[in-house]
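Interim report, section 4.2 (structural modelling).
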Amino acid sequence: MSRADKIDVKNLSVYYGNDPAVKNISILIPEKKATALIGPSGCGKSTFLRTINRMNDLIPGARIEGNVLVDGQDIYDPKADVVEIRTRVGMVFQRPNPFPKSIFENVAYGPRRHGNNRKADLEEIVEKSLTEAALWGEVKDRLNDFALDLSGGQQQRLCIARALAIQPEVLLMDEPASALDPISTAKVEDLIDELKKDYTIVIVTHNMQQAARVSDKTAFFLSGELIEFDETSKIFTNPQDKRTEDYITGRFG
Amino acid sequence: MKNYKDWIIEKILLVLGISSIVVLAMIFLFLLKDGLQFFSVVSLKDFLTGDTWLPTSKPASFGILPLLVGSFAVTLVALTIAVPFGLALAIYLGEIASSRTKEILKPTVELLAAIPSVVYGFIGITVIAPAVKSFFNISSGFTLFTGGLILALMALPTIVSIAEDALHAVPGSYKEASLALGASSWETIVHVILPAAKSGLIAAIMLGMGRVIGETMTVLMVTGNAPIIPGSIFESGRTMTATIAAEMGETVHGSTHYYSLFGIGLVLFTITFAINFTADYFVQRQRG
Amino acid sequence: MTKAAKEKLAFQLLTIASVMVLIPTVGIIVYIVIKGLPAINWSFLTEPPRNMMTEGGIYPAIMGTLYLVLGTIAIALPLGVGAAIYLNEYAGTSRMRRLVHLAIVNLAGVPSVVYGLFGLGFFVIVLGFGRSLIAGSLTLAIMILPVIITTTEEALKSVPNSYREASLALGATKWQTVRNAVLPSATPGIITGTILGIGRAAGETAPILFTVAAFYLPSIPKSIFDQAMALPYHLYILVTEVPNVPEETKFGTALVLLTLVVGLNLVAVLIRTRTRRRSY
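Predicted structure of the assembly:
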């Protein structure tokens, strides 16, 4: 693992009951770059994503084999602190899921849980995070409004701001634009482009153009296996595997 | 540190989580303990089959057959009335009523459940017993029938709400399939929806029955309270629940009479436990 | 008979049956209001009964019921809500959860007079509380436990899982998630359940018969180990045990009790429908 690699996955398999959803995957995800995970529905890319901050722990009957190292530390070590891992590895979900609270309280949620309740601190964090998420200009005059009254696209950027507020090192995004209209999608994509300067981003997407636009590296998943992983430009122009080529050219299911 | 606190909270919640099991077990063990005290004096067979309840005479007699008959009689009357009406109301609410009618009817039924049993008893004494007396031209209106009549009203909300849930749980696709084949709404209800909801409807009736058997104050106030085996439902009688309520105040703690009431409690508990256990089986089966 | 005529007849019968249920419900309430209203005045609500309960008011009974209800909620609310949180948020789909569910179903079916028996045997005698507010409150509390657990569980179930995921993904602990992301959304449901529980506790007679209820006390209780009068029991003795009580007094007492209990239920229904609308 070179210094530029943030996440090191070794021989990872994930089982739901007896069926493997992810089979023996090894991959090195680079720091401060955007890595896209593509593949047809049910190929295991979302399952894989959720192993990186142990959100799979919440699914009854889910079991994993292999190792996931973040900065060289095995996050599945029995002594590892899940809460600390999830603080370092943030997540944005497929559907915007703001809490039924004010805009301010949504962003302040993480910091408050980590013990920061000073008003001045929180105000600073909220402004900084919303700015980073390119939402500050739109909401700065109505921070106390109900978050669920925002548009879908704004809600998703709010969720990104909320994730940024605890200063994660890695940001996992599970099809973050799939529930959004094209304009909001473009905004979120621009945002990802901006964020990858400071954060390691892993994004699952259905949309190949999106993967091509925002990511530096792309991994193609099929039936729980990692078929090919390379520079995005290479995957889309000169894939090595026949199955990758079939998928990106649309000759596939 | 953070996780340590979480661990403690989880353990506290675990203890609270099993509190209901503990409480239920304690009630049972307690009734059993005091009930067994009694059964060391009077045999279970004499208790259940003896036809005379005279706990304070000398020699005392502790046969609860009259009380079992009393409880059974009011339950029969109540269910005979409440089941057809309850199911009718549930079908009406679930399949026929407009949403406006529903908005009035449902809270009304819930209101029925909210009225305290002592108020039902009071209305029973002041209105219903005299009405029963003159309508059937009998010497007293304080009869098992009167008790059953009021209990029917009290059992309705239970039957209606659970039966309606059961009807609601029938997949809409069944209904559509039947209607698409040219069946009328009524035929669909009779031949498709009711059979599909059968388990839930049985559960509704059973839970209504549990409610009726356990009801105390109303029957205590309106059934006349003679602990003898009645000749008909238009005579006075007494239920198990009413016996406990009426006599516990007068017993001496530790006397056979005192323990005999726990014996009745144990019988009641066993009956309602069996009813609820079975009803839950049907509810779960309905859910699939 | 044609298919259509048959259906029409069946629907008409069902409608008639449904309307027939409305009549006694509305009838009981209207009757009590009409006959009880003349008795209600300030002194009826604020004075103790006098002259063998044939005169005076019902103040100690009102206060007794209030105290009982407060004591009941103080015990049942933390216990019930805590249990529901455990079952819904921590227990997963374990066998224990099924067991607890069965216990709750059966507790809900235990006759109220059996709760009274247990309260007498355990709280009054074994624990030595005597007939007292504490013994009565404990008895009523275990009686309404199933109501509170069931409604709280429903409320927790209706909180979207995405709130939990969002919170956990932000590095919040399980309890922080429950406390800050789940409970706020479940609060209206919990309040509804609590009010329904209070309504039930306020109206029950059999469980307090041998655990707390006093025939007559001129003053309100001063400690949790004192006996207390209570509205439902007071109505019971006015109707069945005390001679020469004016009809008006009985109906007045019934009206106060009915107003309290039905009022609580209406509030619960209101909260429920309002929050239901908001969530759509």
